[in-house]
Amino acid sequence: MIGRVAFWGSLGALAWTHAGYPAAMGVLARLRPRPVRKAEQTPSVALVVSAHNEEAVIRRRIENALALDYPEDRLEIVVASDGSTDLTDAIVGEIAAEHPRVRLLQCPREGKVAAQHRSVRETSSDVLAFTDANSEWKPDALRALVRNLADEEVGYVCGQLRLESPDGANLEGVYWRYEMWVRAQESACSSITAGNGAIYAVKREAYVEDDPKFGHDFGFPYLMEQMGRRAVYEPAAVATEKPAAEPEDEYGHLRSGTPQMWDKAKGTR
């Protein structure tokens, strides 16, 4: 009897998670929509690029950030180098010598989130935007993000990540599209439950120095709700990534917390 109850309870929980909850969000998005009050604005922004031994991609990432359609005097690009031991710091320093908007922040080896916290303390912009070293943003992505932050209730906004092959072909699977659809329904009626580390922005007054062991993807939407703010999704803010050649390399780019996790992902332990 107990086993039967456990079985059907587990099956029901799975059904709710993958079908019931998304359906409920879809209904609420239509019956009780909560539109974000967007507006064109150009607050000052510090775009933080998290990096640990990213010599292969960091130049391209900075060049992509410099090409964003955003007023130059309102955008600072900060590369938070988490104890990099390759040529990452040298490459960033070389670019920074030519572009005053680019800044290298050398951090001790403490992990991605700790480096992000340091970047926040070392900047004074109105908005903090975050990305990964292997991501590229579409030219209008930053503008699309900050439009949402014109809403006083919104503290956090994430964009859409698209996975592409080296030749530019779309590699998104059915589950990824399903997840983006659920995120859009959550955002339409309330707040999202998870973000995306490749492209997101936070109002400075809403930023929280949470435990460095946990990433912002899940932590920040939850923290926004605790503060009475919204965390929303903006599909027009697009970032692209090309899958790594090996699975362990992909884990290296998706690292979330401690240096030990980064090392294990890259196979350096």
- Count the domains: 1
Q: Give the strand line-up of the largest sheet.
A: 3-2-1-4-7-6-8-5
Euclidean distance between termini CA atoms: 47 Å
CATH architectural name: Alpha-Beta Complex
- Give the DSSP E fraction (strand runs of 2 or more residues): 15-25%
Q: What is the CATH class?
A: Alpha Beta
Which word captures the global form?
Answer: globular
Number of helices: 9
- In sequence order, what are the helices and strands, one letter per element? HEHEHEHEEHEHEHEHH
Task: Outline the structure in words.
The protein has 269 residues and is of the alpha/beta class. The protein has one domain (45-266): Spore Coat Polysaccharide Biosynthesis Protein SpsA, Chain A (Alpha-Beta Complex), CATH 3.90.550. It is built from nine helices and eight strands. The protein has helices at 2-31, 58-66, 88-98, 112-121, 141-148, 174-189, 216-226, 247-253, 259-266; strands at 45-51, 75-82, 102-107, 127-132, 136-137, 154-163, 200-203, 230-241. It has an eight-stranded mixed β-sheet, with helices on both faces. Helix 1 packs across helix 6 and helix 8 packs antiparallel against helix 9 (259-266). The longest helix is centred in the first third of the chain and has 30 residues, at 2-31. The protein starts with a helix and ends with a helix. The model is unreliable at 246-269 (pLDDT under 50).
